[in-house]
Task: structure prediction
Amino acid sequence: MAGLLLILAHPDDETFFAGGTIAKYAALSIPIGLVCATRGEHGATADLCSLDELPAVREAELRDAAGILGIRDLDVLRYEDQKLWAAPIEAIRRQIVAAVRRQRPQVVMTFDPHGANQHTDHIAIGRFAMDAVSAAADARWYPETGEAHNVQRLLWPSPISPFDLGHVAEVGHQPGVDILIRIAPFHGKKESALRAHRTQFPGLVTIFNRDGALSWEAFRIAWGQRPDSVPVDDLFANLS
Result:
C-alpha cells in the first residue's frame, strides 16, 4: 500500500507546510507517519505556559494536530531545538531508519538543503533524513531495525511558501513546483491543526491570514521517478 512519511524538525512544521495534503491523503486511507526531531522548546509560549513546561506542551499540541490531520504513526525524538545539527549521527540515523523500515512508505517528505526558510534545524533534519533514507535501503545498516526498505520518491517543500502560492501567476510554470495539491476542501482541517499549536498560533495566524493561503500546497521532487510532465496533483503519481 502507498504510504507517506514526513521527517521534520519541529511541532507545527507538518501543518505549516503540508497540513492540507496530509488531511487529503488521510481521507483516502493512506497510511501517514511523522518523525519530529525536537519538541520545540525554544519556541513561543503565548503566555500559556512557562518555558520549563513548553516542551511537554508543544509535544501535546503536536499530538493533537496529528490526530486532527490523520497522522497514524508519530515519533518524537526529543533532540534539542535550535541545536539539531549537534544530534549524534549514529543515534538519529538509527531512529529514522527504524521509522522508515517500520512504516515502509513509498514517499518521504523532508526539508531541502536550504531548510525552506534557512532555519538551521530544517537544514539539519533534511540532511539527517536523506542520510537515513539511503541507509534504510541497505540491509547492512542496523539489521535489528527490520528489513531494508527502498523509498521510491523523496519530496521537499516547494521554493514558494504555502501562503504565497495563491498569489503567484501561473504557479505551475514555476521551477520547483512539481506537485501542486489543491487543499481548499481540507481548509478546515488545516486551520484546526494550526489552532491546535496553541502556543505558536499567534505567529501562524499572521502568516496565514491572507486570501488563498489555505488553498494550495506544493512540493518539489528531490529524487525518484519524475512524472512525464509537471506539475501533477498526486504525491504518488507514476509510482507503482
About this structure: The chain has one domain: 4-222. The mean pLDDT is 95. The longest strand covers residues 216-224. The chain is about 35% helix and 15% strand.
